[in-house]
């Protein structure tokens, strides 16, 4: 009986030990989550000043800087689209910029070349000034700056906490005693890895928008009634006008025909109205 009791006792002790480890880790993660939710004075982290360059505060002060996203929209009227496009390409080369998206529209009234340009943050102002000076006449210009330092700092702090907790769970997985404990720990690890991927993706997106500003440039050329329209003679225009008039008349006639159910109601309404007037007079 003692031989049977001792193995059972050992198993129970190991199970309770692993369960206590999971509970203690859960308590740790709750503390980390509370730290994530707690308000953080991010200005102290950004503007931190210390005399000891080896201190953690100094390291954070060096790595954290202002995160400013610059965006702009410009509409420029030009004489020739192709010539203006060549000038734009020269400006892009000088400022190490590139075209992310290009769209061209050609209508009877005007021509439009819409460009989405990505340019290094430091060259953004020089690029805008180059387009304002030598390309054509600026019809509209809108420049905006968005400070995302607070969002970036908040995500960075939470990301660091999640990575620390992920390492704790991985250490626990190595010493898990039962299959149930292993599955629970693996599920928590998967959840943390997904959250870390999302946070890192957001940080990469912010870094990309900070390092490379975006400018939406629209080159506009208004067409003059000269080449094609002036060649059309009076006879052709007269025939086109007659055709358009006839088409309008047919459309109007078909519209009236489509209302025939309402026309059938008119005699009925007149009959009822006269009958009502007769009874009223009597």
Per-chain topology:
Layout: H1 2-37, H2 42-46, H3 56-63, E1 68-77, H4 81-94, E2 98-106, E3 110-120, H5 124-134, E4 137-147, H6 149-174, H7 179-211, E5 212-222, H8 227-230, H9 234-257, H10 260-281
Parallel strand pairs: 1-5
Antiparallel strand pairs: 1-4, 2-3, 3-5
Poorly predicted runs: 1-18, 32-63
Strand order in space, largest sheet: 2-3-5-1-4
User: What is the helix fraction of residues, given as a range?
Assistant: 55-70%
Largest sheet report:
5 strands, mixed
State the end-to-end CA separation.
118 Å
Notes on the protein architecture:
With 282 residues, the chain is an alpha+beta fold. The chain has a domain at 20-50 and 63-224. 65% of the residues lie in helices and 18% in strands. It is built from 10 helices and 5 strands. Helix 4 runs antiparallel to helix 5 and helix 6 (149-174) packs antiparallel against helix 7 (179-211). The longest helix has 36 residues, at 2-37. The protein is flat, with a radius of gyration of 37 Å. The chain starts with a helix and ends with a helix.
Summarize the structure.
The protein is of the alpha+beta class and 282 residues long.
């Amino acid at each position: 009986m003692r031989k049977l009791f001792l193995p059972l006792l050992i198993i129970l002790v190991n199970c309770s030990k692993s369960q206590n480890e999971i509970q203690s880790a859960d308590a740790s993660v709750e503390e980390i989550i509370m730290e994530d939710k707690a308000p953080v004075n991010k200005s102290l982290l950004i503007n931190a000043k210390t005399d000891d360059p080896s201190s953690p505060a100094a390291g954070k002060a060096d790595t954290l800087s202002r995160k400013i996203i610059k965006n702009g929209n410009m509409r420029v009227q030009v004489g020739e689209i192709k010539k203006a496009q060549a000038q734009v390409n020269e400006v892009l080369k000088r400022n190490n910029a590139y075209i992310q998206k290009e769209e061209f529209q050609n209508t009877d009234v005007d021509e439009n070349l819409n460009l989405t340009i990505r340019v290094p943050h430091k060259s953004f102002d020089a690029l805008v000034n180059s387009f304002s000076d030598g390309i054509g006449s600026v019809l509209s210009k809108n420049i905006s700056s968005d400070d995302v330092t607070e969002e970036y700092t908040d995500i960075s702090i939470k990301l660091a906490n999640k990575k620390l907790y992920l390492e704790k769970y991985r250490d626990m997985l190595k010493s898990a005693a039962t299959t149930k404990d292993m599955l629970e720990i693996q599920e928590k690890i998967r959840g943390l890895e997904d959250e870390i991927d999302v946070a890192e993706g957001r940080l990469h997106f912010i870094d990309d928008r900070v390092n490379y500003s975006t400018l939406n440039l629209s080159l506009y050329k208004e067409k003059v009634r000269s080449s094609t329209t002036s060649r059309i003679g009076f006879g052709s225009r007269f025939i086109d006008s007659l055709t358009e008039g006839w088409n309008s008349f047919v459309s109007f006639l078909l519209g009236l025909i489509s209302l025939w159910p309402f026309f059938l109601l008119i005699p009925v309404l007149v009959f009822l109205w006269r009958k009502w007037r007769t009874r009223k007079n009597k």
